[in-house]
Design brief:
With 307 residues, this protein is α+β, with helices and mostly antiparallel strands. The protein is 16% helix and 36% strand.
Length: 307
């Protein structure tokens, strides 16, 4: 069955060690890949996810030690939300308090308890309590498996107008409108994790500004190269500029700006994060694509030290 939904979300952050500490220790995510930005090898690309690094669980960062803060605005993701068991909302509320992480009061969004907070760079995150999720959680040192984050729940995009983006979600990416609440329009895919994209139309807001705490792009799933090519052709037929396919080692990608200005990626499920190291060792070693291996010593010399 084709899984329509998110593959991953990629954001900018400040210092790599601070980012790693927050997302692995406080949130309990697994570091599933430690590599570099293939377009800027002097910068890490850190991937966090579940035990196996499945599509739909992945949040990635380009950490820059002295990054200026970004500004959330039109044409950008406003919020990135994770799935947790509904019964774990109280546990997570206490954990955020214990760790000194400021959070907003618990609210109901489309019928689900939602706990919003920010990471050290100001990126807006949320934990959404869901029922009937029997997927296994990654048991980190401080977050037990029964309370662990299960993967992405979805993203909320801030737009001038919702309709043009909605057409891409439904006509090309395989999502369907699932509900409206205030100025929010929610779209759902068939994937059990990472299945939701919510549009918030707020005409007249300032555009987003890239920087620490801002999202660089949203990636959607393609089952294989053929499915990805079909989506690319459908986008081109609508007059959108689509890049050539790029090999990202763990998936293959094409990119485009959707009509609202958000950078979208379509990433293949294959080959996955175990292509260059076993699942039990994910994230332990710095992994480089073959073309960068001859430069490993120089790359390691400029990267900040992280665990």
């Amino acid at each position: 069955m084709v899984q329509a939904g998110l593959h991953h979300v990629t954001a900018f952050s400040g210092p790599a060690l601070r980012n790693l500490d927050f997302h692995t220790r406080v949130l309990g995510l697994r570091l599933v890949k430690k590599t570099v930005n293939f377009d800027d090898p002097g910068t890490y690309h850190l991937y966090y996810g579940d035990a196996a690094g499945r599509p739909g669980t992945i949040l990635t960062f380009f950490p820059v030690e002295r990054a200026a803060p970004g500004r959330v605005g039109v044409g950008e993701a406003q919020e990135t939300a994770f799935r947790i068991p509904r019964a774990s909302i109280g546990w997570w509320t206490h954990r955020l308090i214990e760790k000194g992480v400021a959070h907003e009061p618990l609210v109901q969004v489309f019928g689900a308890p939602t706990l919003r907070f920010r990471d050290p760079d100001g990126m807006l995150l949320a934990l959404v309590g869901v029922d009937g999720d029997d997927t296994a959680g990654w048991a980190s040192g401080e977050v037990p498996a029964e309370h662990a984050i299960r993967g992405l729940h979805g993203v909320t995009l801030l737009l001038d107008a919702a309709a043009p983006t909605a057409a891409i979600l439904t006509e090309v990416l395989g999502l369907a409108e699932a509900g409206r609440e205030g100025n929010l329009i929610r779209f759902a895919g068939s994937a059990a994790i990472g299945g939701f994209v919510t549009l918030r139309a707020v005409g007249g807001f300032l555009p987003g500004r890239p920087g620490a705490g801002s999202v660089h792009h949203i990636a959607f799933r393609a089952a294989d190269d053929a499915a990805q090519a079909a989506m690319g052709a459908a986008l081109a037929a609508r007059g959108l500029q689509v890049t050539e396919q790029r090999d990202r080692q763990y998936f293959r990608s094409i990119y485009f700006r959707e009509p609202g200005g958000v950078l979208f990626e379509i990433a293949t499920d294959a080959p996955g994060f175990a292509v260059d190291e076993p699942v039990e060792a994910l994230g332990q070693a710095l992994k480089l694509p073959a073309g960068l291996e001859p430069h490993r010593a120089a790359i390691e010399a400029v990267l900040p030290k992280v665990a």
